[in-house]
Each structure stands twice: as structure tokens, then as C-alpha cells.
Amino acid sequence: MKKLIIINGPNLNLLGKRETNIYGSMTFTEFFDSVVKKYPNIDLAYFQSNIEGELIDKIQEVGFTYDGIILNAAAYTHTSIGVGDAVKGVTTPVVEVHISNTFSREEFRHQSYISPNAKGVILGFGLQSYELAIESFLS
């Protein structure tokens, strides 16, 4: 059984409430529950924090024992060398995920400190981006 974790960064706890025109109206808990049901043969965990250091700690904690990390570092994608270094420092493959197409948004969102060390990047498919990342670990 594959062991995967979804790690979400700042403000993603507000999904379903904030900027629904960009992020949709479903909460992440609702989405996660549906994904767990859809993939019963995957040991799927979830972690969210608004605190950069907690994200780094979680990546380091699971980064040598899990089969995959699905990381939406949100705004820290574009600002945190520390999160990027954490991804670089672990052996577990990381897929960088974004709900929106970051290249169609503000210029500062076009830079990622995660992408250079990620297995791949999936963005712009809404919450389905997470499912596409899961599928990437199954094939």
C-alpha cells in the first residue's frame, strides 16, 4: 500500500470560504474525505499549517519514510527558500501542486523555490490537481 501525504500551506484552511472564484466552494476537508474514499488502497494523510517552520518540520518528518509528498506550499512556494531546501533535502519524491494556474496570476507567483527539486508540478486544475498528483505516484 502506497503511503502518501498532502501538505498544504498558509490560508488553504480557508478553502470554500476565501476567493471562491479562484478556489471553489468546497472545503479541503470535504475534498480530502472524497479522495480517501476514491483511493481506498492508499494510506493517505493530510497536514496543513499557516506556519512555515511547521511545514518544514513535516516535510523532514515524512521525507524519508513516505512514498510521496503532495505539496501545496501556497504563498511559501514563492517566498520560502527554507521550504525549497526541505524538499531538496529529503529522499521522498515531492509533487508541487497549485489549485490555480499561478502563471495567470500576479508576477511574483511565477517563481517557485520548490519546482527545481520536485518530481513534477501540477497547477491550474482546481482541486483535481491533487488527484492528478496522486495518480502520478500510482503509475
Layout of secondary structure:
Elements: E1 2-8, H1 20-23, H2 28-38, E2 42-48, H3 52-62, E3 68-72, H4 76-79, H5 81-89, E4 94-98, E5 120-123, H6 128-138
Parallel strand pairs: 1-2, 1-3, 3-4, 4-5
Helix pairs in contact: 3-5
Précis, in short:
By secondary structure, the protein is of the alpha/beta class. The protein has helices at residues 20-23, 28-38, 52-62, 76-79, 81-89, 128-138; strands spanning 2-8, 42-48, 68-72, 94-98, 120-123.
Low-confidence segments = none
CATH topology: Rossmann fold
Q: Which quaternary structure do these chains form?
A: single chain
Query: What sequence of helices (H) and strands (E) makes up the elements?
Result: EHHEHEHHEEH
Strand order of the largest sheet: 2-1-3-4-5
Determine the N-to-C terminus distance.
13 Å
CATH superfamily: Dehydroquinase, class II
Structural features, described:
- There is one protein chain.
- With 139 residues, the protein is an alpha/beta fold.
- The chain has one domain (2-138): 3-Layer(aba) Sandwich (Rossmann fold).
- It is 36% helix and 20% strand.
- The protein is globular.
- The two termini are 13 Å apart.
Annotation keywords:
139 residues; alpha/beta; Rossmann fold; 5 strands; 20% strand
